[in-house]
Amino acid sequence: MSESLFGLSPDAVVADLDEGAVHLRVDAQLYPLEAIYAAAYVFIARCWVLLDKPEPNRIRVTLTAKGAQPSADDLRALVGEFGNELLSSAWRHEITKTNRAMIEAVTMQAFSGAMGPPSLDELAAFDFTDEPFEDPLGIAQSWEDKYKKKPAKEGEP
Amino acid sequence: MTAAVTGVSAPAFVRFRELGDRVVVTSLDGEWLVLGKDEFRTFAKGDVVPGSELHGRLAARNMLRDSYDVRRAADTLRRRKRFLHAGPNLHLVVVTLRCNETCVYCHASRADLDAVHTDMTKETADKVVDTILRTTSPHVTIEFQGGEPLVNFPVVKHIVDIATQKNRAVGKSLEFTMVSNLSLMDEDKLAWLLEHRVQLCTSIDGPAALHDKQRKLPMASAFDRASYWIKRINAAYAAAGLDPTLYHVEALLTTTKETLARWREVVDTYVGLGCRALFLRPVDPFGFAEKTRRVVEYPRAEYLAFYRDAVEYMIELNKQGVEILERYAAIFLTKILAGDDPNFLDIRSPGGAGIGQLAYNYDGRVFSSDEGRMLHAMGDDTFLIGDVRTNGYREIVGHPTVRALALASNLDGQPDCVHCAYQPYCGTQPEHSHKTLGNLLGRMRESSMCAVHKGIQDWIFTTLATAPPATLDVLRRWTTIRPRDHFVQPSAPGP
Amino acid sequence: MIELRFHRELYAGTAIDAALVRLADYAQFERAEDGAHFVVRVSAANEKRARKVARELGNFALGLTVEKGGPDR
């Protein structure tokens, strides 16, 4: 049976105490999908999570607690924690967009510093047959491969 | 929306934090000032009068846009982040899980003394050493841990011998340390450890009654054994002609609920044992402490009150000529006052997991950190990044989990941290977030580690702004790093 | 029998298919499409098992969708 939880707007949150579940309506214009995924993913260890889109710009997140039957207070705490995680994820999404260059530079430096150059054994084991990148203008092609004679088409001399 | 602040007094990029009637202001590269509220308002509005005393202070700290010195900021930032250019320098080697003590907060996933299968073999040790010496870091510290490492002393000796020998071809600045409860020490072991320059570190939880209550040694007092050997080792260093102010056994504290009211006794105990440093570490969520959490845990506000009492007492002792510093404060003060980074791996951005340290389990498995290894002992393999028996060094440090840890501990991507005034000096630990908040990234407002870091830095900046000169002298002395060259292994073979 | 509805704009069809493969030993599945949703009907030896598997399927489908980077384009 669905009911509201004390202190939480029924427009935003509805609980099903029998099922041990809460249904949250999330504004998809406030919270990007990546943030909703990030927050939902964090909860799949503790809950069964289902997403739906009942209307444009609204995502319904259903969290069903695993383990012992939760009380109404437990469900309120779950909602609160999910809300915090969602806000954190949304803000992190924005920060990452703004600071992406700096984060990438630091991470690359950390890795190149820690890993160092490959050894001769590692180079020998590396698979160079993999195509490393797309080359639509054929810049990486050798002259011979680029300008070799093409086989004659049928009927041509 | 307010208009952009322009003009000769417009602020450069800064972050700020209110501390009572003051405001801490920090720059991108970690310059800082503590301003009064009115001063801060004037600064924020860009109304500082050129040539005024406030203008001079702000310009001196490179906080004004018009006079902003990009090169100076870049040089400082480069110096603070130079640890990024090298890989793991700290290698924690768990030579056994066997231990003869039972500690209430034990992280180490201890095993009983008959669990010989948890001893590292010499074959595994050889591979561990080979992996360690592949690090790109020019400095290497091999730290023996357990269980109790003295239980597997033959492998400790083996690692010291082969690492020293192999290092002659590699040329690292190599050091060894051992974290031991000292209860299994004897004169033969001590002689060998002294001869081979292995630094010794132990745990002291405070006065004897408290220590023995929390660290149980069958049929004996763990405190008596530890304190006997601390004094014995310190005497041996002095007899060898080493400066006792620099060479002595360091001890670590784990602050439990029972410790909180006994800050004065804890400090006095450390001073009485000849220790010069005290690391007031709060209890963490790894290992056995989880099972006894309700007994040992406490709100971080109570820890911070304990911290302030203990540190202020230590400062007063310093003014009386007693040399004792608090390690957390020393780490932050080095960053704040000296513009440098002491490379404490849990308080830097990005953190040291996987790129600054590695933890090698007795069976050869490799973890991003000791905390990651402890989680493995609790059944969580999230931070397992390789095995010395099957993976090379680059595979281990290049593991996707290490990349995730570097990203998760980068404060430039972390909500709250990105705007926090303490960001230039701070750090977070993804393993801690994973354990306490359910994911690597965490939520800093709910993080007990963040609460501790903020609380300590709040105290530091308040003290820097208000304390008398004698106190500031003590704090400045705490940033002095004196190298202990005796423990660096000689690079050439002996005569 | 339990019916799960996965919105196409939130779940990757390929992730759902991969999840069905993972759970194939535990229940029987019938996959269909209904407008904006992928529909999966879960049957098992008893209702309790079907419900458990359906819930795990939801988590798997979400997890695999997130790891793929979102719905199929």
Number of separate strands of chain A: 5
What is the strand content of chain C? Answer: 25-35%
Radius of gyration of chain C: 11 Å
| Oligomer category | heterotrimer
Low-pLDDT windows of residues of chain C: none
Describe the structure.
The complex is a heterotrimer of chains A (157), B (495) and C (73). Chain A has 157 residues and is an alpha+beta fold. Chain A has helices at residues 33-43, 72-115, 120-125, 143-147; strands at residues 2-3, 13-16, 21-27, 47-55, 58-65. Chain A has a five-stranded antiparallel β-sheet with strand order 1-2-3-5-4, covered by helices on one side. The model of chain A has no long low-confidence stretch (mean pLDDT 84). With 495 residues, chain B is an alpha/beta fold. Chain B has two domains: 14-60 and 70-80, no CATH class; 87-376, Alpha-Beta Barrel (TIM Barrel). Chain B has helices at residues 37-45, 53-60, 70-80, 122-132, 153-170, 187-195, 208-214, 222-239, 263-272, 293-296, 300-319, 327-337, 370-377, 393-397, 400-408, 430-437, 448-466, 469-477, and strands spanning 14-19, 22-27, 32-36, 90-94, 102-103, 139-145, 173-179, 198-203, 215-216, 250-255, 277-278, 280-282, 325-326, 357-360, 365-367, 384-387. In chain B, α6 links the parallel β7 and β8 (198-203). In chain B, α9 (263-272) crosses α11 (300-319). Chain C is of the alpha+beta class. Chain C has a three-stranded antiparallel β-sheet with strand order 1-3-2. In chain C, α1 (13-22) packs across α2 (47-68). The mean pLDDT of chain C is 93. Chain C starts with a strand and ends in a 5-residue tail after the last helix. The chains are: A alpha+beta (157), B alpha/beta (495), C alpha+beta (73). Chains A and B meet through α2 of A and α15 of B.
Short description, anyone?
The complex is a heterotrimer of chains A (157), B (495) and C (73). With 157 residues, chain A is an alpha+beta fold. Chain A is built from four helices and five strands, in the order βββαββααα.
